[in-house]
Amino acid sequence: MLLLTGYSEKGNANDESKVDGRWYTQSQVDKGRIAFEKNCAECHGKEAQGTLKWMDALPDGTYPPPPLNGTAHAWHHPLNALRRTVYFGGVRLGGTMPAFKDSLKIEEIDAVIAYFQSKWNKKIYDAWLERGGLK
Ligand code: HEC
Question: Ligand 1, atom 14: nearest CA belongs to which residue?
Answer without folding.
Answer: 65
